[in-house]
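User: Can you model how zinc ion sits in this protein?
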Amino acid sequence: MQADRYKVHDIEAVIDRLQVVEDRKERLSTSLQTALKMGNGLVLVAKNDDHEAFPYSKHLMDAETGLSYEEPSPNAFSFNSPYGMCPTCTGLGYVNKVDMEKVIPDDTKSINEQGIVPFGEVRDNWMFQQIRAVAKKYKFSFTTPVKAISKEALDVLLHGSKEEQFKMQVNGNNYEFAFEGLVNLLDRWYNDTSSEKIRQWAEEFMTVDTCNTCQGARLKTESLHFKIAEKILQNFLIWIWGH
Ligand SMILES: [Zn+2]
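Assistant: Here's the modeled complex, given as structure tokens:
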């Protein structure tokens, strides 16, 4: 059979056609085993009349959606292990989130008066050149009290712009840029482990909150899908395995 080598193919092979009756049990069993072997644990059973196919799998996977699970191991139920921990909070169950009360403690102050605290004192640097371009586009100034800056503009300052919608000129060169947003900057600086000083500074504007990915359960999503009597298996199987 010729198959285009640059395309991904689903190749199905018919292993057997048979009527399911009592005295063909042996043949049915052998054919299924052959099919599972050829299909690496996946088999389709099709009806003879309308060819409607039903997928079955030997693996821990949903044959319809393709969502698969690794074989459960003790590590998968430990939030201390990279195999089990929630990747968002690294198994802590909580995350540090930017706290707006700490970022803008007094919204009657302007950017010049450090109304948006993490921006700090106005300087002539790259970041303030960007903030100036945002201010120009949204028609506010560095003396506008933060509470008088439009919701749309404040949202860009805090959460960033999706597209490169701002223009600025630096040393005669034109730049078009997307503003990263203060919250994203703080998150990035906080998670940047290369400088403990920067991390500690960013942490001043953060507050502890339950992890949204695992809802505080500390395990990765796949592990949380394993349940006994509707209970998740957080560090529980380790105990069984260990005793
Ligand atoms: Zn989590």
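A couple of observations from the model: Residues 25-38 form the longest helix (14 residues). The CA atoms of residues 83 and 199 lie 26 Å apart.
User: Helpful, thanks.
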